[in-house]
Specification:
alpha+beta, 4-stranded antiparallel β-sheet
Length: about 250
């Protein structure tokens, strides 16, 4: 069932349960076209997408991440920052390749391009009535192993994954921060935001206690900060450097 742009954006929720039905070639072609039309820095298209529909490969990645939706989805798209392509082209034309990909700004450009492409794919999939779930953990859990499984060469680095399937659930909409916290006008808010943030923390806690399906005692602040601590413990900097990123001190 197709959805309007408004429905695809405002009714979107991460869905992790899928039927065994395959996604049509027509729908996947539409998603590919949306990805191709993604706006990118300098129109350099500093990203690449690996579309995984091989069940054995999906299960290997599931074994690393313990994210069940990876093995049960029909297509698992992996979005990568990619300066390999421009490097190959520059070398073929005899153009000196800049150290830009190795800088903080270069890495940021690649991540932004890949993230924009993921959102293009997500909205395209949702507009066709498909279910999606972004998975950032693929970047942090075992980047060297995943990079090897996907054959990622130097200059290509993991950013995020997107599970796509035919939906088999309709979970409750999660609370989102109020507009006053997300949209600031002309300059960053100067007042004390603590009261608004703690109220949102309360709303999330209430949602987790009362939502349909599995419930939890998770709040917002401690739960999210816990993810930050886990991310720091993974220390992915060296893995990114092995792919050619963040080796310059600038």
């Amino acid at each position: 069932m197709s959805k309007s742009v408004e429905e695809a954006l405002l009714e979107r929720r991460s869905r992790r349960r899928y039927t065994r039905d395959r996604i049509s070639d027509e729908d996947m072609d539409f998603i590919y076209k949306a990805i191709r039309n993604t706006p990118t820095s300098y129109n350099g298209e500093q990203f690449t997408v690996i579309d995984i529909d091989d069940q054995e490969l999906k299960e290997k990645i599931y074994g690393l991440t313990n994210q069940k939706q990876i093995k049960t989805c029909n297509h698992f798209l992996v979005f990568c920052a990619d300066f390999r392509k421009i490097t190959v082209a520059a070398e073929a034309k005899g153009v000196d390749v800049s150290r830009f990909p190795a800088t903080v700004d270069g890495y940021t450009v690649g991540v932004i391009d890949a993230s924009l492409a993921l959102m293009s794919a997500l909205v395209a999939a949702e507009s066709r009535g498909l279910a999606t779930c972004p998975i950032g953990y693929i970047r942090t859990v075992a980047p060297d192993v995943v990079s090897e499984l996907l054959g990622l060469p130097q200059g290509v680095a993991l950013v995020c994954g997107l599970a796509i399937g035919v939906p088999n659930e309709q979970p409750d909409m999660k609370p989102k921060e109020p507009e006053s916290l997300l949209i600031h006008h002309n300059r960053y808010r100067q007042d004390d935001m603590a009261a608004d943030l703690l109220e949102f923390d309360r709303v999330v806690s209430e949602y987790n206690r009362t939502r349909t399906g599995s419930k939890s005692d998770n709040d917002w602040v401690s739960h999210i900060v816990g993810y930050y601590h886990e991310g720091v413990a993974k220390n992915i900097l060296e893995a990114m450097r092995r792919q050619g990123y963040l080796t310059e001190d600038k």
